[in-house]
């Protein structure tokens, strides 16, 4: 690849690629990610659609919140079980909302650790109105225009402080 | 910054101790180039592939081939793991950490996925935040102690178990030529001779064959589009230096030609650069058809043929490379 073909303007995600320089030597250049520069909108659209579809199933009681996060984070049952340190058969059971009621506090802490969300978020989906539609804060990642929602852990593993503020 | 987290981490640790070595040399000497296709694996939600050798293998191969010694540590207890890390950085020793990428909060959210084999270098600590040099970031970043702990002690496939390492000792003299030849020889073996149908060139052919079956694994068209576009990520964006490590390996061969005096390696480096351009075309093609949701059997067949073509040219290439160092 020639050096001139390697440059992409995308400061948000920089990568190093190796190219043929003008003097014929090969070496590294720092550039932007081609995929992110050109296809980020498409990625975001797919992620929002997936979340909305999973949320719909969650609300209708077809899946549990464990499955909601498992699919969103692209994990298999096997991998989730290994990461949470919970038996695979038990995880499989907890994907079903009928059995989610049997979940223990310890299992909640384990799952919230794997998904990197507050334990409280395994019992709620925080929605924010954004551009006329309701969007999950998990997907918006606290980047909604008018509202800021910050969750901070406390020394009590079961309690999270959720701070909701208007953005200036 | 570096192209790849493991080779970049090793190169930066060695450079810090005064050994002049480039990232492509680390990658090549450690036989980093590879291919493996995984159609069904318990740990992966969808078929996938790798374009480098097993994580951790680069460090082991560099030790064997250059005589460098790394001191390594594993921990069960996160508290002990943190204490040892803090002790080392207090002694001003840069320490490589294996982590799950998902917990690194300085990483843009779209990049954050569960991968247990990311490497970064911790160089300091201020209050409760570590100062991190990450090959994928242009500047030093800060990471809070809890996030680093979550990353170091994540469970699952290839879990880090708190793994850290640093340079223990360097040899008084390094002879690069035999190390380069050994690295090339092993890379050729890995690509041509491993008798497992999903590894090396055989793996590229299996990928070409099986990619047409991907629709049956997908939930819907958007899911298939996402997975097809991930081919681009795996080849270009996940720290490969472009074209699934083919560009960095071409650079290694160019540098190897100068060090060993084997002129043929230079022409082979040019050939591999061209082969890499073909992989790059595959990356662009997958991005395009994924975005357009143009994922019918004809397009997947076209993709399959492009991959078969890479297998054919790489088979010829690695056979020539193998002969060039005899």
Characteristic terms for this protein:
heterodimer, A: 168 residues, alpha+beta, two-stranded antiparallel ribbon, two-stranded antiparallel sheet, 6 strands, globular, B: 326 residues, Cathepsin B, Chain A, 2 domains, six-stranded antiparallel sheet, 14% strand
How would you characterize this protein structure?
The complex is a heterodimer of chains A (about 170) and B (about 325). Chain A is of the alpha+beta class and about 170 residues long. Chain A is built from eight helices and six strands, in the order H-E-E-H-H-H-H-H-H-E-E-H-E-E. The mean pLDDT of chain A is about 95. The model of chain B has no long low-confidence stretch (mean pLDDT about 95). In chain B, about 50% of the residues lie in helices and about 15% in strands. The interface between A and B is large, with 44 and 56 residues.
Describe the structure concisely for a colleague:
With 168 residues, chain A is of the alpha+beta class.
Number of domains of chain B: 2
User: What is the helix content of chain A?
Assistant: 40-55%
Approximate helicity band of chain B: 40-55%
CATH topology of the largest domain in chain B: Cathepsin B, Chain A
Rg calculated over all Cα atoms of chain B:
20 Å
Straight-line N-to-C gap of chain A: 46 Å
What characterizes the major β-sheet of chain B? Answer: 6 strands, antiparallel
Helix-strand string of chain B: HHEEHEHEEEEHEHHHHHH
Enumerate how many helices of chain A there are, as a single number: 8
Net shape of chain B: globular
> Per CATH, which architecture of the largest domain in chain B?
Alpha-Beta Complex
Determine the structural class of chain B based on helices, strands and strand pairing: alpha+beta
Q: What is the mean predicted local confidence, pLDDT of chain A?
A: 94
Strand order within the widest beta sheet of chain A: 1-2
Number of strands of chain A: 6
Order of helices and strands of chain A: HEEHHHHHHEEHEE
Low-confidence stretches of chain B: none
What's the name of the CATH homologous superfamily of the largest domain in chain B?
Answer: Cysteine proteinases
């Amino acid at each position: 690849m020639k050096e001139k073909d390697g440059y992409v303007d995308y400061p948000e995600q920089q990568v190093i690629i190796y190219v043929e320089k003008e003097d014929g030597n090969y070496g590294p250049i720092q550039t932007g990610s081609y995929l992110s520069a050109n296809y980020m909108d498409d990625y975001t659209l797919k992620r929002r659609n997936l979340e909305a579809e999973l949320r719909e199933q969650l609300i209708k009681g077809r899946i549990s919140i464990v499955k909601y996060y498992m699919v969103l984070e692209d994990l298999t049952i096997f991998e989730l079980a290994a990461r949470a340190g919970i038996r695979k058969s038990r995880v499989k059971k907890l994907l079903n909302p009928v059995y989610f009621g049997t979940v223990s506090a310890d299992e909640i802490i384990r799952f919230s650790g794997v998904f990197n969300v507050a334990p409280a978020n395994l019992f709620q989906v925080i929605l924010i109105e954004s551009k006329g539609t309701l969007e999950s804060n998990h997907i918006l990642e606290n980047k909604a225009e008018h509202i800021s929602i910050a969750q901070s852990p406390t020394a009590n593993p079961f309690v999270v402080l959720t701070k909701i503020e208007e953005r200036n | 910054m570096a192209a790849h987290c493991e080779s970049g981490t090793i190169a930066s640790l060695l450079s810090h101790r005064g050994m002049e070595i480039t990232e492509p040399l680390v990658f090549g000497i450690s036989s980093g180039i590879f291919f493996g296709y995984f159609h069904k694996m318990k740990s992966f939600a969808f078929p996938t592939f790798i374009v480098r050798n097993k994580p951790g293998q680069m460090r082991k191969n560099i030790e064997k081939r250059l005589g460098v010694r790394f001191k390594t540590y594993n921990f069960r207890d996160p508290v002990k793991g943190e204490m040892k890390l803090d002790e080392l950085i207090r002694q001003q020793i840069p320490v490589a950490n294996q982590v799950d990428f998902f917990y690194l909060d300085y990483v843009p959210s779209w990049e954050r996925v569960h991968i247990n084999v990311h490497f970064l270098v911790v160089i300091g600590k201020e209050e409760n935040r570590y100062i991190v040099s990450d090959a994928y970031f242009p500047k030093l970043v800060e990471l809070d102690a809890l996030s680093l702990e979550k990353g170091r002690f994540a469970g699952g496939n290839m879990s880090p178990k708190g793994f850290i390492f640093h340079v223990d000792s360097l040899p008084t003299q390094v002879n690069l030529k035999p190390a380069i030849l050994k690295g090339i020889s092993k890379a050729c073996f890995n690509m041509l001779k491993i008798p497992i149908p999903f590894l090396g060139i055989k793996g590229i052919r299996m990928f070409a064959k099986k990619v047409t079956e991907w629709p049956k694994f997908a939930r819907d068209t958007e899911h298939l589009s996402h997975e097809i576009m991930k081919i681009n990520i795996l080849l270009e964006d996940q720290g490969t230096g472009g074209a699934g490590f083919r560009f960095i390996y071409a650079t290694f061969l160019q540098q190897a030609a100068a060090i060993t005096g084997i002129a043929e390696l230079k022409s082979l480096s040019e050939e591999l650069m061209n082969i890499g351009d073909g992989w790059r075309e595959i990356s662009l093609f997958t991005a395009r058809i994924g975005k357009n949701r143009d994922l019918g059997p004809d397009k997947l067949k076209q993709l399959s043929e492009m991959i078969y073509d890479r297998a054919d040219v790489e088979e010829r290439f690695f056979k020539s490379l193998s002969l060039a160092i005899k």
